[in-house]
Design brief:
The complex is a heterodimer of chains A (about 160) and B (about 210). With about 160 residues, chain A is mainly alpha-helical. In chain A, about 75% of the residues lie in helices and about 0% in strands. Chain A has 9 helices and no strands. In chain A, helix 2 packs across helix 7, helix 5 packs antiparallel against helix 6 and helix 8 packs across helix 9. Chain B has one domain. With about 210 residues, chain B is an all-alpha fold. Chain B contains 8 helices and no strands. The radius of gyration of chain B is 28 Å and the shape is elongated. In chain B, about 90% of the residues lie in helices and about 0% in strands. The chains are: A mainly alpha (about 160), B mainly alpha (about 210). The interface between A and B is medium-sized, with 32 and 23 residues. Chain B: Keywords: Membrane, Transmembrane, Transmembrane helix. Chain A: Keywords: Sigma factor, Transcription, Transcription regulation. Chain A: This is Sigma-70 family RNA polymerase sigma factor.
Chain lengths: ~160, ~210
């Protein structure tokens, strides 16, 4: 019985591991912490798996657990985030304004997204994953209106980071 | 905001660059719960070490060493203390190496071996602490009875009763009983402290065993 449960869990996680990797990519900055976070999320998923009742899709449930784990981990290591990063981004943005090449703009956007707070990152992540506001709201446990308001604020925030 | 659309496009494009883990790699990940348990055993042993050492420093002033000198247990206690510190440091080192080893283990067979090693080290550690405690307690009791001021009174009382042998048998019996009670309490403390962690390790070990079959 237990063996079956393990088997189905690992198979499902293997098939949908991209979601976890993407969360890791957004919340970490190097390969080592990426791997650590992946393992942490895998363990949290496995712990919660017996209680997962299939009322939601496996992936929806995965998004929720993965983001929750990432946010919790992020809060634990919050003090480690260097502040000068922001300054260097601002500087780089000014320099890049002169040649608006697409690739550079994208890099800039990624950096700007990395500057966001943990919850904002989760919202942007779900947005990038093409989730509608209903799904975003239910995944993060907030109301749809709240999700819209927050998303607008994030867009403004990004705008100020990119065009200071 | 067109920038976000740009980002979304790129985000999807980068999907192909994501790392990919195999079934076995993920399997091993969820079975690596032991790592954090062994880490806690290591931390708790250090906390415990610091706790007992501070307790020792706080309670032992020059007076208590003087008293030990007077009951001829001074060198005995010094020797015992040095011995216990050396062995405790060795145990902490062992816990540390176990923790390091388990962090870098990738096969379930090796993981099982490390779990067994850790369990054995914890058992040895607990027995060592209990023995040191017992020996020092018995030593102190013997010293007090033989050379201490209370001991003199007891000796006089023994002469007065007329049943000297019986009296000493009772005294020894009481000493052993009180030692046993103290040991029992300490043993209970260790059961609580490490018992829970060891139980989890055992569960993980069993899970790994199932996987090997």
């Amino acid at each position: 019985m237990n063996k079956e449960l393990e088997n189905s869990f690992v198979t499902e996680l293997e098939n949908n591991q991209n979601i976890v990797h993407k969360v890791c990519r957004l919340y970490t900055n190097d390969q080592e912490s990426h791997n650590d976070l992946f393992q942490e999320i895998a363990i949290q998923l496995w712990k919660a798996y017996p209680k997962f009742r299939r009322e939601a899709k496996f992936t929806t449930w995965m998004y929720r657990v993965a983001l929750n784990t990432a946010i919790t981990q992020y809060r634990k290591t919050k003090r480690k985030v260097p502040t000068q990063d922001y300054q260097s981004v601002i500087y780089k943005i000014k320099a890049d304004e002169y040649d608006g090449q697409e690739e550079q703009r994208i890099q800039l956007l990624y950096k700007a997204v990395k500057q966001l707070g943990d919850i904002d990152k989760a919202l942007i992540f779900l947005y990038l994953e093409d989730k509608d506001y209903g799904e975003i709201a239910s995944t993060l446990g907030i109301s749809e209106v709240n999700a819209r308001v927050k998303m607008n604020r994030i867009k403004n925030k990004l705008r100020t980071i990119i065009n200071p | 905001m067109e920038e976000l659309e740009l980002l979304k496009r790129d985000w999807k494009k980068k999907e192909g660059e994501l790392p990919r883990l195999s079934y076995t790699e993920i399997y091993q990940m969820i079975l690596k719960k032991s790592t954090s348990i062994v880490k806690w055993i290591f931390y708790i042993s250090i906390i415990e070490f610091v706790f007992w050492t501070t307790l020792n420093i706080i309670t032992s002033d020059s007076g208590s060493w003087e008293q030990m000198r007077s009951i001829h247990t001074y060198y005995f206690m010094i020797g015992l203390t040095v011995l216990s510190y050396v062995v405790l440091v060795y145990f902490i080192y062992k816990f540390y190496t176990n923790y390091k080893r388990i962090s870098f283990t990738d096969s379930s067979k090796r993981l099982m071996k490390t779990i067994l090693d850790t369990k054995r080290t914890v058992t040895q550690y607990v027995w060592f602490n209990l023995s040191i405690f017992m020996v020092s307690l018995l030593g102190m009791m013997y010293g007090t009875l033989r050379y201490g001021t209370d001991g003199e009174r007891i000796q006089q009382a023994a002469l007065q009763t007329g049943h000297e042998t019986l009296f000493w048998i009772i005294v020894c019996f009481l000493c052993l009983i009180s030692t046993a009670v103290f040991l029992g309490l300490l043993w209970l403390f260790y059961r609580l402290l490490y018992g829970i962690l060891l139980k989890k390790l055992r569960q993980n070990y069993n899970e790994l065993g199932k996987m090997e079959v």
